[in-house]
Amino acid sequence: xxxxxxxxxxxxxxxxxxxxxxxxxxxxxxxxxxxxxxxxxxxxxxxxxxxxxxxxxxxxxxxxxxxxxxxxxxxxxxxxxxxxxxxxxxxxxxxxxxxxxxxxxxxxxxxxxxxxxxxxxxxxxxxxxxxxxxxxxxxxxxxxxxxxxxxxxxxxxxxxxxxxxxxxxxxxxxxxxxxxxxxxxxxxxxxxxxxxxxxxxxxxxxxxxxxxxxxxxxxxxxxxxxxxxxxxxxxxxxxxxxxxxxxxxxxxxxxxxxxxxxxxxxxxxxxxxxxxxxxxxxxxxxxxxxxxxxxxxxxxxxxxxxxxxxxxxxxxxxxxxxxxxxxxxxxxxxxxxxxxxxxxxxxxxxxxxxxxxxxxxxxxxxxxxxxxxxxxxxxxxxxxxxxxxxxxxx
Length: 394
Known about the structure:
Layout: H1 10-28, H2 34-41, H3 49-61, H4 63-73, H5 75-95, H6 99-127, H7 130-144, H8 146-162, H9 166-186, H10 201-213, H11 215-245, H12 250-276, H13 282-305, H14 310-336, H15 343-368, H16 374-393
Helix pairs in contact: 1-6, 1-7, 1-8, 1-9, 3-6, 3-15, 4-5, 4-6, 4-15, 5-6, 5-9, 6-15, 7-12, 7-14, 8-12, 11-12, 11-14, 11-15, 11-16, 12-14, 13-14, 13-16
């Protein structure tokens, strides 16, 4: 039997954050090894982006399965199955002998990761509402962002110590196994299904339609999806820009990635404090959208003019990631607010939409890369502008 932690404790939030952070760790840890993976498997560096897109595709599709299942059978069994798939996928990626096998297993590993974001947000909605839910969502985001902050550095360190990119995937397998063990020991079920959680096609269709036709949920779903696209435009383009354009080593790239990811931590922490004090969540969200649009527009203008030094590039990206931190926790919980009885399904729609869009961006931005930061900047700015329009018009 699990030994429950107090649900309002830091330890409990850290447990949920570990589970929620698996996708970010799986996304980012292999980025410093892109040149080594390409050389080891005999493919062009630009093609390695397919491994990231395959992970994101599995991560995007699977929440549409996990969400309704977690509403029907509870959160706990879904968590345990998904973390087991994630760990097994990590081992298989480490053993892959060719590029096609690596891509296939990255998809499966992404499938395992797909429960993390959707079910973690649903757990918060199970336990909290209103400002407290938004504050807890932000604090979980702060803790789970240890994954993208540290993942490239961990990947670069493993590469240095072991001399092989395969060690990063073994590390992911170990992290997935740890999450499985801790959730099995300390997580107690937080949701009791009702009749609205039946898995009949008709009921599922009603539930999905309810999410998409409820104005508040639809509006903030689009804001979150588009701002995630802005963030992932940077994530997918960052190895090519940092190591290819600016000539950074894998270790320095990991450090710059941690710097830019720290902006999300800052924005999320500030947002959590504002929500805890009862500030209207639309105020930091609106400010974040305005700041994200401004900083990404400046990136495009400077990149197009050919006057974008590394320090300026990083400063503007950090400000953009701060804006994401101000937006994301509010957008997710505002979308979930009217959907407490189908929070798992609603979270799955948010995750699938965000990650599916991120997977598309993850293919387009590297393919558009022209040896300058311009393609990455255009991807970021286009998504940030669309998010601001969606917030104003939907």
